């Protein structure tokens, strides 16, 4: 079973919250489990909601994503295109090796910005402490 939620989402489906540091607000959306043909439609809606509420970079924390297929990649690419049209930067944080391989094989590693993948040099994606909220 896949669960994806924003840092501030409740079990009752509250909207993602943007935390406001000194400069443009960063919205962090942690994703969990599998992103596949069954979960992609709900994920797309969740990310569109996050984009509507974002005023700065949108960071997708992929550290807990165990699987991603091409339908998941389509959601990521679509989100990136929408973000760019809104002047928002999309970043993928800490993708696991399977996701990194998929992005590289498809050439999407040149389109989607990744930080802190487990195949990179150890350089975790870091945000100022005040922009991260509890899981």
Would you mind describing this structure in some detail?
Helix 1 (40-53) packs parallel to helix 2 (70-85). The protein has 135 residues and is an alpha/beta fold. The chain has helices at residues 40-53, 70-85, 97-106, and strands spanning 27-35, 58-68, 90-93, 113-115. The protein contains three helices and four strands; from the N terminus they run E-H-E-H-E-H-E. Helices cover 30% and strands 20% of the residues. It is globular, with a radius of gyration of 14 Å. It has a four-stranded parallel beta sheet with strand order 1-2-3-4.
Which strand-content bin applies to the residues?
A: 15-25%
Tell me the number of strands.
Answer: 4
Largest sheet: 4 strands, parallel
Sheet with most strands: strand arrangement: 1-2-3-4
- Going by helix content, strand content and strand pairing, the class is alpha/beta
Count of helical regions: 3
Rg, Cα atoms, Å: 14 Å
Q: Helix-strand pattern, N to C?
A: EHEHEHE
Q: Helix content range of the residues, please? A: 25-40%
Relevant terms:
single chain; 135 residues; alpha/beta; four-stranded parallel sheet; globular; disordered C terminus
Quick structural summary:
With 135 residues, this protein is of the alpha/beta class. The chain has helices at residues 40-53, 70-85, 97-106, and strands at 27-35, 58-68, 90-93, 113-115.
């Amino acid at each position: 079973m896949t669960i994806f939620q924003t840092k501030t989402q409740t079990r009752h489906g509250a909207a993602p919250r943007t935390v406001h540091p000194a400069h443009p607000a960063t919205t962090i959306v942690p994703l969990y489990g599998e992103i596949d043909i069954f979960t992609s439609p709900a994920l797309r809606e969740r990310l569109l909601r996050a984009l509507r509420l974002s005023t700065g970079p949108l960071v997708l924390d992929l550290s807990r994503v165990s699987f991603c297929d091409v339908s998941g990649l389509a959601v990521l690419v679509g989100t990136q295109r929408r973000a760019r049209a809104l002047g928002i930067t999309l970043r993928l944080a800490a993708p696991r090796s399977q996701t990194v391989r998929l992005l590289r094989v498809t050439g999407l590693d040149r389109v989607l910005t990744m930080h802190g993948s487990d195949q990179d040099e150890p350089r975790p994606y870091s945000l100022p402490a005040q922009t991260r909220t509890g899981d």
